[in-house]
Structure formats: structure tokens, C-alpha cells
Fold this sequence. Notes:
By secondary structure, this protein is of the alpha/beta class.
Amino acid sequence: MHNGNASTFRDFIVMMERMSQTEELPTATPHEIHARFQDPTHESSTSAEWWRRSVIYQIYPRSFRDTTSNGIGDLPGITAELHHVADLGVDAVWLSPFFASPQKDAGYDVSDYRAVDPIFGNLQDFDDLITEANRLEVKILVDLVPNHCSDEHALFRQALVSPKGSAAREFFIFRDGRGEDGQLPPNNWLSHFGGSAWTRITEPDGTKGQYYLHLFDSSQPDFNWDNPAVGDEFESVLRFWLDRGAGGFRVDVAHALVKAPGLPDWNGRADGADSPGYPFADAPMFGQSAVHDVYRRWRAVCEEYDGERVLCAEANVHPIEAMADWVRPDEMHQSFNFPFLHTGWDGKALKAIITRSLKAFDAVGAPTTWVLSNHDVPRHATRLGAVAPSPRDGDGLGPDDIQPDLHLGLARARAATLFMLGLPGGAYLYQGEELGLGDNTMLDPEYRQDPSFARTNGERLGRDGCRVPLPWDSSSASLGFSDSEASWLPQPQEWASLTREAQTADPHSTLNFYKEALRLRSAHQLGLGDLNWLEDTNTSSLLGFENSEILVVLNLGTEPVVLPAGEVLLASSSSALDAATSALLNPNSAVWISLHHA
Ligand code: NOJ
């Protein structure tokens, strides 16, 4: 039976009646799914270590909860509300940087790795947070930024006032410029945030001097990891937080620490994305083999501590097979799967990257991780609601851009999440996605703080849109984020109906949907399960697999599909299935079906 434009089962019936009255016979049948599977793509893990099946929730401290009424979130705010996160059923929280920092890159420019920035609180606040986390049995992972620090870090300040060639300069990557007067940078490397990756300094005697390397903002000088003193310093930082009870680390730009000898020119892209003639594998600033020795050392440090402390790599490495090198048995435990995040609404492409990921990580005995949102990319409710291609690769949307379809975005985001949470391995969630939040896509330039906005003269809007403070309740003008109306970025109007308080009371809310998905994921041990693709879903519009006797189906197409028999455990929304029989899965929807009870 062809269902034409039917969007619900009722529409479908009405249309069929109309067709039979006019004796117009249907020409095709809706796709029917059969529970037949291909050879296993991934066999279940026999190891019970927590990080093999974990769900880790990212807190972006400045946007979580403000207890000082200054419009910026803080550590006491996290401690006060952590029970909500624990209630979701996550294993751990990863905190984006809260260390002392001039905040030129929202804390990824650290001026003291052993101090809490006063805007977030102090070390006692961190200790209090650990106490509460222990009570709630949630681990706290700290964000370690070892590639670069802030230009206000004591070591960099010392380097600036020390002579060329001094031990102080050896902590960083200082070089003479090219050209007669050294007026050209030492090489042609570009900063991720736009412009040259080199900044020239004025020497202590007032003359124009050497350049220092910064793969990010000029306020973020890169450390020189060829210098053993840098390694010793970071081992000590690691121990500082482990001793205070940190459950481990998310490691920033974990592929970039070591640079190729001689710092050769590179005409490829600054972010390492392949460009003709310049494959990622040849980039002199990424993936150098000596970087792995750093993580072997850190792994050994973590293993001295109790409680399975972990390391997770933010290693923007591709192809995915190369990323697996970061999680070999003596290196990190997990690595973010960005290729999965960047795969769009396309079943074939998703199946391909999932299959490749599982194979690549299985080969080194590590779990694959899955992630759909974080503080660097438009949230998936925004991305998947795009009605026009994004004008800016990887950056957010602004008031002049075609706005996303929020309804479509939320439907697809919930479906994508349900699909993701059915996959074996570890999952990462970004604060606010459990409320179905999208970006603030209407931010005016005056609010933009991401350094990439200024460094590209506004050509790139930057990542502020996905970093907007959370809506908690209706108690204040900042929707309960702060006791005052202050919020360092304005919240979109539609968030008034998306507060945590409002969603707690609504059984169909995105929040309650996330809770149920996480509960079932844990009850059925899906994180440790195996994966068998359905035989007959090898198209861009339909995808399905079986894990631990649960069938996970995602409808990415425009037509409903007929589901096999079985008990529906969870659907991505109250309109995901046809109301009458639950036998049809509507477009932009996903479902978990227990085959055990078929
Ligand atoms: C990756 C972080 O996630 C991002 O926010 C930051 O700007 C860069 N690394 C530089 O530290």
C-alpha cells in the first residue's frame, strides 16, 4: 500500500479509504522491516570497566547555574544542581575548564592549572563538588588543556622577559622570523581561529623580536612538548587533580601537542581536514608519533590511583582508524567520535561510520564513543532542523541566516539521540540537550565572545550560540539560571517553555524521554552489547540494528515504515508511532523494540 503524503496512521487510513472509493488501486507498499540480521559487526564486551559503557554528561560551567547573580555559572551552582544530572542516570560529568584564566577562549586559555578562576569559585568549592559527586556516585572529569596555556601564565610571562635561547623560552615554541628583518613569520601555519599561528613579541630591550607559535588564539601560546620539563609539569598537574578526587580527564586537542621537527611549512587546512594534496596524515602539527608517549605516561599515572580514573582524547584525527591509535591499551581510555557527530541525516553514511568506528576501536580493544553535541558545534536540535545548508562550515547561525525549523530539529534530535543511545560503547551528552535545546541563532554581534569572530572580522560567527545559559525554572528573568536577570548570553524566547521545572512535570517532555532512554540503556546493558545490522535497512532513509535483543530503528525518510512484531520499549516522541496500532514508525522518528517479547 502506498501511503502518498500520509504523515500519521490516521491520515493514511483516510487516504486509503478515499483511494478505494475512487477504485484507485495503490501502487506500492510501505517498506516493511523484517528482523533479519547481517553478520555481527561488533561482539559484546566481556569486560565490565565502567568507561566501556559509560554515559558522560558535559557541563559547561559558565552556562550551567549561577549562584552569585553575575550572569556567569559557577562551581557552587554545579554542586547545588548536580542531583538533577545524577537523576538522569549518567556515570560521570566532564567539566569544561574552570581554572584561572583571562577567559579569552572561555577558559581554554589557562593561566594557572592548579587554581579555580574566581568567576567560578575556589578550590574549596571544587572539593565540595567532589564530596557531593561522591555522594551521588557520579564521577567528575576535569578538562586538561596541555597543548597551550594563556599568555598570562607565569611560565609564559617569564619567557617573555627572558632572553632568546633561555630555558624559560624553551617551555614554548619561539622562533626567529623569516626575511631580512625577521618581518615574516617562521612558517606559514594558520591559527584555527583565523590568521597566522605566529605572533611577534617585543624583546625586553624594546626591539622587535622572536615569534611564538599559537595554533589557536594569540593569547594561547603552544607548549614545547620536546622539552621534558613540560611533561614533568603536566604530570604534576594531573596528580594535583587526581589527588583531589577527579575521576579523570578530557584532554583538549590531544593530537597536537608534539610538532614535526623543523616545523615545516604546511599548505593544508588549519583544522587538519583533508584538502587536495594535503592529507591529515602529513600535517606537521598533528598526530606526531611522540605524542603517544605522553599518553602512555599519563595512563600509568592514572593506574596508580584507585577507582578506574580515565583519559578521554579530544583528538580530531581522521580517518577514524587513525583515531584508534589514541586508545591503544596503554594509552587513553576513550576518544570522542567526531566523524559520527559530523555525519548528517543520512542512514547510509551513518551506517558506514558506525561500522568503521566499531571495527577500528574493536581492533585495539577500546570502546567506541558517540556524541551529537558539545560546546564547539551547533547543537544537534539546531543542526538537524536546518532547512538550508549552513553558510559557515562548523560555526553557528546568526540573525541574517535562514533559521532552522525548530519542530523538525527537535523531532530529529530526539530520534538521533535514541538511536545513539542504543549503540554499544560510551555516549557523551552536552548539558541542555536533555531539554531539547537548540542554539540561540539570533545573537547580535555585540554578544559574540568566541575569538574566531574577531579574528575573522565576523566572517565566522563562532560558537557562542551553543553555549547559552540553561533554563531551570520561571523564578527569574534568566529562567532560573541566575537569581538575577543576568545571563552572559541572552536565552532564546522559546526556552521559557523548555525549563527543567516545566519538563519534569510533563511525561512526554524531552527530559523524561532522556531519563527513560538512559534507564533502559542501563537496564539492558546496551553499552556493553553487540551490534547486528538489520539486513534490509541499507538505505539513506532507514537504519536499524539489534543490540542485546533490542531492535533500534531510525526512520530518516519521508514515509512511515512497518515495524516487526515486538514490545515497544520507547519511541522518540508521542507521535513517532501511529496512534492506532504502533505498527508504523513515522518519519524523523526512532524506536526501541524488545525482540525478546516478540
Ligand atoms: C577544543 C575546545 O573544545 C575548544 O573549545 C577550544 O577553543 C580549543 N580546543 C582550544 O583549546
